[in-house]
Amino acid sequence: MAESRGSIASFATYRPPLPVDIFSCAVPPSPGTREQKLTDGKSYNCNGRPIPAPALKLLIEKKPELASECGGATAEDVDRGRATGLVFVSEREDGLETLHVALRFNGEVNVVSLADIYGADAFGGMRMEDSACFGGGFAPEADHSIIYVSTKKQVEKRRAPWTVVYRTSLRTGETERLTPEGQYDLSPAVSPSGKRVAVANFRWNRWTGEIEHLKTDIVVMNVDRKAQGGKLNRKRLIKDGGWPSWGSDNVIFFHRGIEMQDPSSGKVTTTWRVFRYDLNTEQTEAVTPEDINAMTPAAISETKVVVATIRRRTNQMSEQREVAQYRHIEIFDFANPNQQAVKITQNIGPKADYYNPFVLDGGNSIGYHRTRTEDIIKKQDGKSDVPRTFSKLQSPHNDVAQFRVSGVFPTFSTDGSKLAFVDNEFKAVWLADKQGLRVVWERSKTNTVFSTVWNQNPEKDILYVCVGPPFSASSPMEIYAIFNVSGSSGGRPEVRRLTDGGYNNAFPSSNPEGTKIVFRSTRDHMHGTTDGTRHKNLYIMQDAHAGETVGDGSVTRLTDGEWTDTQCQWSPRGDWIVFSSTRDKPANAPLLDHGVDIGYFAVYLVMAADPNVVVRVVTSAAPSAGPGSVAGHVNHPVFSPDGRSIAFTADLSAVSAEPISMPTFLHSVRPYGDIFSVDIDRDNIQKNKDIKKFHRLTHSRYEYSTPAWTQFATDDHNAQWNMLVTTGRATADFKPSCPYMQADGGDSWHMTGHMILPRKCC
């Protein structure tokens, strides 16, 4: 086994703090209607769809334990509807979002992964799987198959999705790719006959940086090319649409974002509506009204469709939401446009969000997923805690482990004995070490603390934090040091401000000796630019203990230019500094694209002793693409402890799911994307120019951000909130109060579904 190179920890920015799970309820619901949980309640589970009886029997035939360990369900039980099946996405296997099957019989539920049934050839490796559906219809003699999305095959092109639709035969396990090479598909749905599949196909075979409203079209093709003369017969039916669902073999429902620009402010807003397309007449007609948001349709018939709605959309988390501002499940009837929608979940839990409905029992029941609010722990003081986990993730490298941290900006001490992070309210600094878990510093206001980082000299026991509004370059921000943070020297921690002058100072990092700090600042660009932004460069604080607030504290400039240099880290050997920068952004580049910052961030190295030596290491798009090819986000770079690699968060793999199917946030769903790494030459800086080969470390529908790389590694896969100490043992649970919960006035608490985490932090 290869010698360990430590572990990479990262934060899944928009992943709900409470687990999500799959439920159903009868139609029509009434006050007091009880839900039925459709899984075993383990892990995070979402995006469920029912399994047709012929397909379920084949799955049991391939994996008898599926039934024998679930009350001994038989084929007759399946035929008579006593045993039912569900396919869904679960995170129960090392954090990978992969497909699983649940058999439900006599109140028991047994869950197995498709990898357990068909092996790693079809369902193995680093990947994300999603949107499973079944081909072959209901005829027992048909060649039944499962159609799904997977990101298992690497795409060399940068800023391109890895989402490909595959078909796996349930009888043989034979797998074929349905998405042509060089194209990218999402959200497959099979027609009732089981012969055709509709997908959301990325227009122009590329992702152009859009966040919420993807540029996708509805494409239809054959499920089984062998039955159709070896041809898929792909045909583009609908321009600008996503999340298709068949009402019959001649009708497709889909959602579409309608963008409108305010003439006075210029602000672009998007309203989501569900439409119906008739394949015979080629007519597209609206199903849901224009004054509400409706998305993720699931057809009940040619005219009836169940959708998720937000009747009054808001992006404000600070205010208590009304029922109309939550995401709920409703049924609309195209044939009776004047008939009121049938409200499903409002009668179950009006102040909760419900996602991605699906149809059960011919429309007599509706399924969906929501957060498991019953997992909230009520404390004696009346406040609520959310069970947190520090989860080990599967890694593509045998010598590098991965973890997901439930705190923001995780940072490890050099010797791996201490972990610090900021809570989700950006208010308190938490420390985990051999003494357990505790708050070592807390501010009175939220959204004021971020970017924790340890002094590289572990003997100094110093933790740096940034204080101020973290996402406003025009606002002052200061760097603080928490001395004796773990109390190893006795006494209480001492907090001292290191910067002075009202500049925007952030992202400190010390040299290996712990005597100096590199950081970013606006101090020489205080007048700003015509668009209101302020440039930022890197500076070195010559005294990491006194800072610039005591005596003759000296600060020297490291980089100089009218751009943004930020997110810097000093190398373990002290010779280089890695940082993210927009210095190669074209002069005529637009400030915004799709309503958000277009980025143009790339990762660079600079010699600490000679700032004239700067090398661009990795960009979001291939440099050979020409001017403007660095558009996008490659951010938060960190060195490996041995200095042989750099990990970062980036949009190199675009998006892996339709963002509107996920929780709605203040800004975007995936501003950066996943965690990646590149290997570097640690002896010759020039050999690291525009590295071509990169490694994708996470595959997720959520954003993974702010990686930290420690020399520490653990073999504990499942312990709840591992305390990263040298023994590798878990000593406590991390249960900070969840900032995404709001009381409804009674004893229950609900997910707000809206987060204040911003689109980018630079």
UniProtKB/TrEMBL annotation:
Transmembrane segments: none annotated. This is Dipeptidylpeptidase IV N-terminal domain-containing protein. It comes from Eragrostis curvula. The lineage of its organism: Eukaryota, Viridiplantae, Streptophyta, Embryophyta, Tracheophyta.
